[in-house]
Design a protein that fits this description.
Blueprint (H helix, E strand, L loop, with lengths): L11 H21 L8 H30 L11 H31 L6 E3 L3 E3 L10 H40 L21
Antiparallel strand pairs: 1-2
Helix pairs in contact: 1-2, 2-3, 3-4
The structure holds protoporphyrin IX containing FE (2 copies).
Length: about 200
């Protein structure tokens, strides 16, 4: 029998952070995939949009972490086996790392690039380079640039793997196990109280 506790959901602030940050990360990946071919003024626009969205993810993620630290998490449903709970916790930690490290490594790229293109968030707010590393001697800066690009590319690949695993797990819960894990993040999918009766 399902009990009410099985449908405990994340609070609305957590749900808001989850979906807005997920949408921004996916949008930023789609924009980045255009870098290899887009040219001219559109290239500048694509990079500025990518940087603006990435810094937004960074700022929202800091707020999200603070919110998560002070709010209560819903218990895992009883239908989840212990290995599923452990896998879920590892992926969550991975995502929190990515949500900070991916934008930070991108910010490090533009802070050490010798192109010197300023970062103007949404064409309005001037976003500074990271202090200290942007003023390193030229050979150190070149090395830091290479490391930042490598790190950003590697972190992007880790993101693809985490997203694939996370989405497949959510779909498996929804359509194979049918245990309402997805409803924890999309409350409208939860059964109405009448469905909770045996
Ligand atoms: C949500 C956050 C972000 C995501 C998901 C993301 C994703 C990506 C991806 C997938 C690439 C292409 C990697 C490849 O070619 O394999 C890329 C490249 C790049 N990103 Fe980001 N990024 C994010 C944040 C940022 C931020 C905050 C900045 C700068 C402020 C930035 C600057 C760049 C730059 C300059 C490149 C081109 C690097 C190169 O290949 O030379 N990114 N990003
Ligand atoms: C880049 C995209 C995504 C990121 C970074 C992400 C990240 C996270 C994180 C960190 C959590 C833990 C809860 C929290 O702290 O807010 C979570 C939970 C969850 N996510 Fe995502 N997510 C993404 C996309 C998706 C998508 C596309 C789906 C649905 C198909 C999804 C479904 C869920 C569900 C159902 C939970 C709740 C799991 C539980 O019961 O603990 N997520 N996600």
């Amino acid at each position: 029998m399902q009990t009410k506790g099985d449908f405990a959901r994340f609070n609305y602030v957590a749900i808001f952070f989850h979906w807005i940050v997920a949408a921004l990360i996916l949008a930023n990946i789609l924009i980045a995939w255009q870098f290899s071919w887009v040219q001219g003024p559109m290239r500048l626009l694509a990079f500025q949009a990518h940087k603006s969205i990435g810094i937004t993810v960074l700022l929202l993620s800091v707020l999200r972490i603070l919110w998560r630290a002070v709010s209560t998490l819903p218990p895992f449903p009883e239908t989840m086996r212990s290995w599923e709970k452990e896998a879920s916790k590892i992926v969550e930690k991975g995502f929190y790392f990515i949500m900070l490290a991916l934008p930070l490594s991108g910010w490090a790229i533009v802070s050490t690039s010798d192109l010197g293109v300023p970062t103007i968030l949404y064409g309005v707010v001037h976003w500074p380079d990271i202090p200290v590393i942007s003023t390193l001697p030229i050979d150190w800066k070149l090395r830091a640039y290479g490391t930042s690009v490598d790190a950003h590319h590697l972190l992007a690949k880790i993101t693809y793997a985490l997203v694939a695993f996370h989405v497949l797990a959510a779909l498996r819960h929804q359509f194979i196990k049918r245990d309402y894990v997805l409803a924890r993040m999309i409350p409208s999918l939860a059964p109405r109280p009448v469905d909770l009766r045996e």
